Amino acid sequence: MIHPLQRLTPLLFMGLLFACEDKTKTSSPTAASTSAPAHPSGLSPDPLPPLKLESFQGLGLSFTYPKPYQVETVTTNPQIHQIAIDHNQEPGVLVIRFDPSHPAKPMVLDEIGEATRQRMDAQATMTPSTLMVAGQRVEARTIHSTQLGLVSSTDVVAIVTIKGTNYVVLTHTADADAQRAQRMFDTVLQSLAGQSP
Q: Cβ-count burial of 173 within 10 angstroms (0-12 exposed, 13-18 middle, 19+ buried)?
């Protein structure tokens, strides 16, 4: 069961995407993975059930995602098109966004990471990291924060280029749910590719 406070952060996370629309950087979603925190007890957690997978094609991208997560696309803003993968009863939010009017526009990773950090709590920190995207390590920024002083969360921001389009990839999860959310992130980002004609 997802704690109600944990649903606040994805909303802030989604709002960030549109707040940063005038920032620039290069990203291409293809496959990403971040390391989940160690299990609190020091023991291996119970194995997770097998995933049921669905396929998505649209906005120039294709990927596989696990059910019951859902894919939503937003194209009302002519300068920001966005794909979001989430579910209100499952942990983790993954967002991919790009500027369709200038798909190859260069972007600055530190600017987008800093904009993410500033919209979190006052003690949020940002550190350099990497994200596995389609079998390759991509430079990323990891932001650690505590929402309302209660829910610790981790956001990872990267820039990936696919078929000449620069994409910003953002993942968000409450730290307590990192292992389960990571499976969704890995499934999507490891399968991320350009849409077939």
A: buried
Could you tell me which CATH number the domain at 4-36+55-194 has?
2.60.120.1690
List the strands of the sheet with 136-147, edge to edge. 70-77, 80-87, 90-98, 165-174, 151-162, 136-147, 125-133
The pLDDT score that the predictor gives to residue 23 is 36
Give whole-number Cα distances, 38 to 43, 44, 139, 179, 186, in Å: 9, 9, 23, 9, 17
pLDDT band at 155 (very low <50, low <70, confident <90, very high): very high
Q: Would you say 25 and 108 are in contact if contact means Cβ atoms under 8 Å apart?
A: yes
pTM to 2 decimals?
0.76
What angle separates helix 109-118 from helix 8-19, to the nearest 10 degrees? Answer: 140
Predicted local distance difference test score (pLDDT) of residue 36: 40
Higher-confidence residue: 46 or 144?
A: 144
- The per-residue pLDDT for 46 is 60
125-133 and 136-147: which strand pairing?
antiparallel
pLDDT in the model for residue 38: 44
Please calculate the CA angle 44-49-55 and round it to the nearest 5 degrees.
125
Write the DSSP symbol of residue 24.
-
3-class DSSP state of 109: helix
